[in-house]
Amino acid sequence: MTFIPPAERLVGVTLKDNWYVVEKVIRDVKSWSGASCYKVTRGSEVGFLKAFDLSGMKKVGGEDDHELLTHRFKRELSIIKQCSDAKIGGVVNLLGSGKHFHSGTDLNELVNYFILEYCADGDMLKCIEDHSLIDFASRCAAVRDICEAVDKMHANGVMHLDIKPENLIHFINERVTKIVDFGSARRYIVDVDPNLNDELNEITTTYSYAPFECLYHDNDWTNNWNEYRRKIDLFLVGTIIVRIFTNMTFSSLLRNRLADKYSWKNKRNLGKFQEIKPFLIEAGSKVYVMIKSELEAINSRCGHPLTPAQVKQIVSTIRDLCYPDPKQRGHPEEVGRKNESDGLYRYHDRFKEMFEQCSLKISK
Ligand SMILES: Nc1ncnc2c1ncn2[C@@H]1O[C@H](COP(=O)(O)OP(=O)(O)OP(=O)(O)O)[C@@H](O)[C@H]1O
Ligand SMILES: [Mg+2]
Question: Is the CB of 161 inside a 6 Å radius of any atom of ligand 1?
Answer without folding.
Answer: no
